[in-house]
Amino acid sequence: MSVDLADLVGRPVIIGGGAAGLMTALALAPEPVVLLSKSPLGAEASSMWAQGGLAAAVGGDDNPALHLQDTILAGAGLCDEAAARRIIDAAPAAVERLAQHGVAFDRDASGRWRLGLEAAHSRNRIVHATGDGTGREIMRALIASVRRCPSVTLLEGVEARRLIVADNAIQGVLAVRGEEPLVLATARVVIATGGIGGLFLDSTNPSGCFGQGLALAARAGAVLSDLEFVQFHPTAFDGPSRPLPLLTEAIRGDGAVLIDETGTRFMADEPGAELAPRDVVARAVWRRRAQGHRVFLDAREKPGRDFAARYPVISAFCGMAGIDPAIDPIPVRPAVHYHMGGIAVDAMGRSSVEGLWACGEASRTGLHGANRLASNSLMEAIVCAQWVAGSIAGTAHRAGRAYEPTAIPPASDPSAVRPLLSEALGVLRERGGIAAAIRCLLPLAQAAGAAADPTLVGLMMSVAAHAREESRGAHCRSDCPDTLPVAQPSSLTLSSAIAAAKEIAETDRPSFRSVVS
User: Fold this and answer.
1) Phi/psi of residue 367, each to 5°?
2) 364 and 298 in a common domain
C-alpha cells in the first residue's frame, strides 16, 4: 500500500466493508474518506451472504404505515416507534438509490419490482435481486461504485484494533496492517463492522464477524443497548458445514412448509403458521428437535419444480449435499443469524462518544426492538448510511491528535467464547446457565490475550441476558416465561457490565435495574 498516512489526517474513517460501510463512504462523496476493511472487500461481510432482500412499501397494496405496523408487532414492545417510522418511510427511496448504483433488482414482466413475502409481513414487500442472491448483487454494485469513487481511500487488509479517545471524544484509530501498527489521526469514526454470529458455534454469519465493532466501542466508553436480543434463523441447512448455509424465509413465503421426519406439519395450527415471527418459528423448530425429531423444509409442492430457478444459490448447495429440493425435504435447524442489539445511537447514528457513529448491524437504532422483522436489516443499513454521512458532513472538523503507534492488542480469537455462548445464550436460556457462562467469561475478558475482545462482547451480552428476567421476542428465559407489562431497553457500558458480572459471579443475584436504563 503506497498511501501516505499523513495525507489522511482528519478524514472520516469508516471501519467495515459491508453494505453499511460502503454506502456511508459513497454518501459522503465528494468529501474524502478512509474506508478500512480487514479483508478484501466483500470477503467477510454478512451483507454478501444475505439471501433475503430489502423490505420496502413499494407495492400497490402497501404503504409505510402497514410496514411500520408489522415491524412494531414483530419487535415485541421494544421498537422505538419514531425511529422505526422515520427509517421505514425512507425505505422506498433506498431501493431507488441502490438501483441508481447499478443493483439489478428482480422485476416482473411489466418492469415493476418483483416483490416477495417473508415471515410476519402482511404484504409482499421484499425486493430481491437474482432470486436468493440479493446481498451478493448489492455488494457487487456498491464495491464497484466505491472502487470508482475518487473521494474514497480504500485500505484493504487493515484492521482497527482500538479507538483512541480523550475526554470522551475520538482522537484516532489504532490499526494494524500485517504486523505493522499504524495510527489514523481523525476525530470522526464510523463503526460498520456487522454482527456477532462468529461468537457462536452454529451461525449463518461469516466466522470473522464476532462483534469487533462492539468491542471497539465498548473500550472507547460508548453505551451499548439491547445486547441480549439475538435472532436465530429457524431454517439453516442442517449439515456439517460451518457457517451454516441459510434457507431464506422467502421459500416459506412461496408456500414451503416445515415437517418432521414423520411428515407431520407441526406449525400448521400456530398463528401465522410457517410465516409467524422468526422467534416463534425458531423456538418451534428447536423444541421439535429437542423432542428427538429431525426437522425439514418441504418445498416439494411449493415452489416445487420452480425451486432451482427461484433459488439458484440454495439449489446449488443442496445439490452438493445430494438433495433436490423439488423432490426431497431439506433438513434444517435454528442458527444465530442477526443481532438486534448494538451500539446505542441517535437518529443520526451518533453514539455517546463524541465523533463516533455506528451504522448497520453494529448499531442499535430502535428499529428492530426485541425481534427483527425479516429483510428490515439491509434496508436499515442503506437508509441510515445517508443520515450518518449527513451528520458527519455537518460536524465541525477536528483533525484529531497525532499519536505514535503503541503496543497493538493481539488479533482476536473467539474460539474460547463459542461453546460458552452457544450453551448459555441459545434459543432457550435460563439463569443458572447464563451465570455459569459469566463466571467463565469474566477472567478472559479482563485478560490481555487473543480472547479478550470477543469475550468482552460475549460477557456484556450475557450480563444483559441475565438481567432481563422475562421472555420477550428473541430473548426466551425458560425460568422467566412471562413478558413484563412494560418494555424497557437495556443499556450497558463496559464498566457497568464488568461490575455486574463480578456481582453475578459472586452472588448470582444482581438487580435488573442495576444494568438497564
Assistant:
1) -65, -45
2) no
Q: How many domains does the chain have?
A: 3
**Half-sphere exposure at residue 32, Cβ-oriented, CA atoms within 13 angstroms:** 8
How far is residue 208's CA from residue 227's CA, in Å, rounded to a whole number?
Answer: 19
How would you classify the pairing of strands 189-191 and 356-358? parallel
Domain that holds residue 474: 410-514
Predicted local confidence at residue 513, as pLDDT:
44
Rounded-to-integer distance, Cα 442 and Cα 460, Å: 10
CA 505 to CA 497: how far, in whole Å?
12
- Whether 239 is covered by a domain: the verdict is yes
Question: pLDDT tens-digit profile of 33-78?
Answer: 999 999 988 777 777 777 778 999 999 999 999 999 999 999 999 9
Is residue 378, in this structure, part of any structural domain at all?
Answer: yes
State the catalytic residues.
278
The secondary element (H helix, E strand) that includes residue 182 is strand 180-185
Q: Are residues 355 and 315 in the same domain?
A: no
Using the predicted structure, report yes or no on whether residue 514 has a pLDDT greater than 70: no
Residues 128 and 20 in one domain: yes
Tell me, yes or no, whether 329 and 352 share the same domain: no
Q: Which three cell numbers stand for residue 414?
A: 473467539
- For 113-137, how does the pLDDT look when each residue is reduced to its tens digit (9 = 90+)? 999 998 899 999 999 998 888 989 9
